[in-house]
Amino acid sequence: MRHARAAQLRTTTAVVTVLVLAATATACGGSSSSSSAGGKGSTIGIDLPTKTSDRWIVDGNAMVKGFTAKGYKTDLRFGNNDVDTQVSQIHKMIAQGDKVLIIASIDGEALGEVLLEARDAGVKVIAYDRLILASNDVSYYASFDNFKVGQLQAEYIVDKLGLKNGNRGPFNIELFAGSPDDNNTQYFYNGSLSILQKYIDSHELVVGSGQKRLTQVNTLRWDGAIAEARTKDILSTSYGSGRIDAILSPYDGISRGVITALKHAGYGTAAKPLPVITGQDAEAASVKLILSGEQSETVYKDTRMLARVAVQMGDAILTGGKVKINDTKQYDNGNKIVPAYLLPPVSVDKTNYKQKLIDTGYLTEADLR
Ligand code: GAL
User: Fold this and answer.
1) Residue 204 Cα, ligand 1 centroid: separation in angstroms?
2) Ligand 1 in contact with 182 (CB < 6 A)?
3) CA 251 to ligand 1 center in whole angstroms
4) Is residue 224 in some structural domain?
5) Dist. CA 216 → ligand 1 center (Å)
6) 307: confidence class by pLDDT, cuts 50, 70, 90
7) Mean pLDDT on 326-333
8) Is 209 within the bounds of a domain?
9) Looking at per-residue confidence, does 126 or 18 come out higher?
10) CATH, residue 257
């Protein structure tokens, strides 16, 4: 449906596109044909999913700082995890004349139509951390190696349970995945299963609830409260006197929800220790839980570096420079393969948090008090 509507709109707006592009070229007076109209001084629209998670605030601030230092204005907005809000914000950015849009989508498939407007206005779009799907109008993708993120989480579990060192368990594990409308979710989950599946097949890892399919384990909008409720449910229906030994969690906010439910059910004592619990984003609230021994691990993605990548891309687009990419294969958005720059994720626990998070200035000791 969505795709058909998008295709129809694309056709009806084709003529307008040609006219707008022609007008733009004239107005530019023969400036570099490879750069979008604008250049230094123009405004970059930055639209991020929500303020309820620290990371997006950090991402937003880092991009504002980076673009400002390069002589641009910025228009930073947060979509309140609501698709309509995000679409209307993007709509406004285009109408206002923002020249490049940097978007971390709430629903990866929901932006096709509004991005047709961007194209018609000659505005280039960069997908930020989350790929925008089902659209031709995404020029670049800035993210991390998302498959690797899932692998790091799973490897941590395998390592901590001693599975590689001959401890055959069996261990009980429960699996959590991210939001079904976020393209990253399947990359994280597939990355994790690429490590865990063989132990599940050999019954060294047992999913007590039996819930393994992505449709059973996903967490809409990455909402910790949903993960908390699902944990409660699993504990009461599948774990009478049994114990969970490990939780695969793809994101710190989900981990915190799971931990709340587990503690409520009596976990967190010497007799009933909390399971190995992974996470992602190195949010201060979760690093505190790592230090107190409640969460085990998180995958740190230096969002300052991601912001730097996005700023390089935006600046190059507007000045006719060369956009740096390092992947042209992995990220097919359904319409095209989007050229990407992917950064390396890093597994962090209490043994290396100082070196990775504090010494690099990502967090301060004060953030963790
Ligand atoms: C994903 C992102 C993760 C995490 C999650 C929830 O798209 O890659 O790092 O932030 O959203 O916000």
Assistant:
1) 30
2) yes
3) 7
4) yes
5) 19
6) very high
7) 96
8) yes
9) 126
10) 3.40.50.2300
Mean pLDDT of 239-251: 96
Range(s) of the domain holding residue 318: 12-138+302-344
Mutate to test the pocket of ligand 1, among 129, 132, 153, 299 (most ligand atoms within 8 A of CB): 129
Give the model confidence (pLDDT) of 11-45 as tens digits: 444 433 333 333 333 333 222 334 555 788 899 99
Mean pLDDT throughout 298-317? 97
Question: 313 vs 126, 127, 158, 264, CA distance in Å?
Answer: 8, 11, 38, 46
Question: Does residue 67 have its Cβ closer than 6 Å to ligand 1?
Answer: no
Question: From residue 277, how far is each of 90, 119, 150, 309 by CA, in Å?
Answer: 37, 43, 13, 30
Beta bridge pairs of residue 280: 299
Residue nearest to atom 6 of ligand 1 (CA): 222
Domain boundary (300, 324, 353) is at 300
pTM above 0.85, yes or no: yes
CB count within 10 Å of CB 160 equals 18
| Residue 147 in contact with ligand 1 by CB distance below 6 A | no
Q: What is the whole-number distance in angstroms between the Cα of residue 345 and the centre of ligand 1?
A: 12
- Judge if the beta carbon of residue 221 lies within 6 A of ligand 1: no
Report helix, strand or coil for 162. coil
**DSSP bridge partners of 173:** 207, 246
Place of tokens 């570099």: 32
CA of 246 to the centre of ligand 1 (A): 21
**Cα-to-centroid distance, 261 and ligand 1 (Å):** 22
Pair (282, 177) in one structural domain: yes
Residue 166: pLDDT band (50, 70, 90) is confident
10 Å CB burial of residue 96 (0-12, 13-18, 19+) is: exposed
**What number does the ligand 1 atom closest to the CA of 130 have?**
7
For the CA atoms of 60, 66, 69, 71, the dihedral, rounded to the nearest 10 degrees, stands at -80
Distance 99 CA to ligand 1 centre (A): 26
Among the listed residues 204, 59, 76, 75, the one whose alpha carbon sits nearest the alpha carbon of residue 144: 59
Four-point Cα dihedral 178, 183, 188, 190, nearest 10: 110
Asked if residue 155 and residue 101 are part of one domain, the reply reads no
